[in-house]
Every structure is written in structure tokens, then in C-alpha cells.
């Protein structure tokens, strides 16, 4: 069952197209991540859903209620939507308790109890209730901002790059904490992020915007392994693109013959392989095995648990560079000959 339905959403700023005909469905109790390059329309889409901006055309419906029908919109404070901006936007002159309780009626007899429950929900010690925002760490400030947004018991939570100001280790910890909170509260969430890895790990569904258009939406694993086109593939992670000849259930390319779901397609095409699909082993002494693909290690970039290895493969008159991800132990030396073997199938991209 869907909670949010966006249909034909269009928004322009003068001659600049911010969104064009965007259709999006967000299931209840799910987490969606919206990703895309700068200027793709991510924040504009979030602001229209929140009620901060009005679309030029299109509809936004929440739980069957119309929130926007073209420029006719429901006010933001009547939408039942929580919003957590990038910097938290806490009131600096208010304590943590006052920030969290800002959206709760002052005369509510359960106000203090609700504030304490929210502190526990976002995993903050109640001893912090009297502190001001400047006395908190970045991660603590974001948790307070989340608690404040949860105070009104919203049906939908919008997160606008909420972890981007945090360092890498803290960002992961806060993200996992937020995921737990949202799941326990049963709240549907939409997050805008520029971090592809963050989107893939946070969301049940990922939507990719480019140039104001929705290019592809679906489960993270589907978008990662089966992107529609080259741009989407590269935006969601490292990939090697190769020209190939398509046969019945296979493709022939610089790395040899690889299984692929070709369907009725034949002739030439472009395929994608992720770096973790390719494994390396020392080349056979005295020649190449029949059908095996060999190359020369051009570059090794040590990255601890996972390292990047670039291998040059000669195919016809061209030398093709293949990116491989490999564990940090027993790395091949630069200049050494290696054998490349592909695990799994190739994905055929749309032209």
C-alpha cells in the first residue's frame, strides 16, 4: 500500500527546468533515498512534498489526501510531515528539551513524558535535556533534530542530506541509529543524499534523478546491478563498460565470453561489470590457457580491506583498462601478468 503518490510533478524557475513530469510512489513504512548529481532536482522535489514550494503542475497525495494540485497546495504545517534539514536547524537559545518540545502543546499533561520517550528513542541520555545545541556534538544535534520532528508523530519523515556534515565514522553510526528509530516508530521516510553508498544502505527503494527527470527507481540491489544506462551505473558506483557482441544468453567482449540475459537482443551492445565481479590470479607460466583473459597490472591503490587494481587488457588494437576490487592481502605487483576471471553475468545497458 502506498503512502505517498507523486504524479506528473513539474517545476520551473524561469527558463530553468527543476522537475519535469516526475512520477513517484512511496510504500507505507518504507525508506526511500533520492539521489542524483547537483542540480538534478532532489531538493526541489523534497521541498514540494514538504509544502515549502508549490509545483507548476502535477499532484502530491499523502495517504489519499491531496497536498498539491498544481500551484494549489496545503500549508506545510497541516501536512503531518516531519522535516530534518542538513544542519539540524535547532533553536540555539533553547535547551534540548525545549527544542524537542517545540511542536508539542505547552499545556499537554504528557508533554514531559513524551520528551523523555523521544530522548530514549533517539538514544540520547536524559542528562542532556538542559543543554543548549552548542554543547552537543554534531551527531547529538542531528538526533535532537530527529526527535523534534518525531514529536508531532508525522506520517512521513523527510531528511535533507541529514548526515553530510558528520565525519565518516559518526555518519554511519548516526545513520544506523536513525534507521532503527524510523523502523521502530513505523514511519515512512524519504532521504535526499549525495552519498551513493549511504543511499544504498539506508533505503528500501532508491530513486535516481537527472536533469529534473526520474531516470530509474527500485530496490537498491536492482539499481546497482541492473541500471538502465551508463550514467546511472556510474553514479551508483564504480563500473567497467565494455563493447560486446550479443549472442543467445551470452556476450563476447574483451574479457571473453560472459553469461548475460540477452533476450531477443543481438548484434553489438554495451555491457557493465562491477569491479567486485572480477577476480585475479597469477598468469600461467609459458602461455595463456585457451579462452582465458590475461592482462598487465598498471596500478594498485591500497585501501585496507578493499583495494583498487587497474589491469590493462589488449583487445584487438586497443588497450582497455579494467578496474578490479580485491582484498588487501596478497596484492599483485605493478607490472605483473594476471589472469582475469568474471564471476556472475554481465548487464546489458540501454543505448
From TrEMBL:
Gene Ontology molecular function, alphabetical: ABC-type ferric iron transporter activity; ATP binding; ATP hydrolysis activity
Domain ABC transporter intervals: 4-236
GO CC aspect terms: ATP-binding cassette (ABC) transporter complex
Keywords: ATP-binding, Cell membrane, Ion transport, Iron, Iron transport, Membrane, Nucleotide-binding, Transport
PROSITE patterns named in the record: ABC_TRANSPORTER_1 (PS00211), ABC_TRANSPORTER_2 (PS50893)
UniProt-listed Pfam families: ABC_tran (PF00005), TOBE_2 (PF08402)
InterPro entries: AAA+_ATPase, ABC_SmlMolc_Importer, ABC_transporter-like_ATP-bd, ABC_transporter-like_CS, ABC_transpr_FbpC, Mo/tungstate-bd_C_term_dom, P-loop_NTPase, Transp-assoc_OB_typ2
GO biological process: quaternary ammonium group transport
Membrane-crossing residue ranges in chain numbering: none
The family this protein is said to belong to: Belongs to the ABC transporter superfamily.
Protein name in UniProt: Sugar ABC transporter
